[in-house]
Amino acid sequence: MTAEQRAVHDRISNGPRGGVPLPFLAILDSPALCDAIQGVGEAIRYRSKMTDRQREIAILAAAAANGSGYEWDYHDKLAVKAGLTPAERQSILDGSGDGLTGGDRAIVRYVRHAVQARRANAEELARIAKAFGPEIATEATAIAGYYPLLALFLDAGELDTPLPEKITP
After folding, report:
1. If residue 103 lies in a helix (H) or strand (E), which one and from where to where?
2. Whole-model pTM above 0.70?
3. Assuming Cys at both sites, which of 62, 84, 97, 141 could form a disulfide with 79, CB separation 3.0 to 4.6 Å?
């Protein structure tokens, strides 16, 4: 590693993540870009107004919509810690959002649509804003853009894995 790469690597490792997840290793060829991208993720993960549950719902929805098994596996463990049941996680994986409350279901549907269509769905975004406020709606939009970016770097580095087909308890 160059000195600049080592400095970014160590900042990530010594930060709230406690390590350097694979996407950032895949981006480290460009230390300044890696630092900026990981900074966005740090804001999403550690300074968000979303509850842990809301954030993991949104991230899992982005991972499922984009087909990123690495992101799904990484965040599925956090979703379990945040209290999501196997049935709820399955409904996120399949994109239906069935069994989730209205606001949580809107997060799944909004993020899934945004990732797959690369467009915001105004109705679902309004549902999120009505249920949780405009800041949460903005954060859901950021997640819908950020996690596919990480998945692209994982794919470019041949580091991604397939999504699970079914959630097991």
Report:
1. helix 102-117
2. yes
3. 84
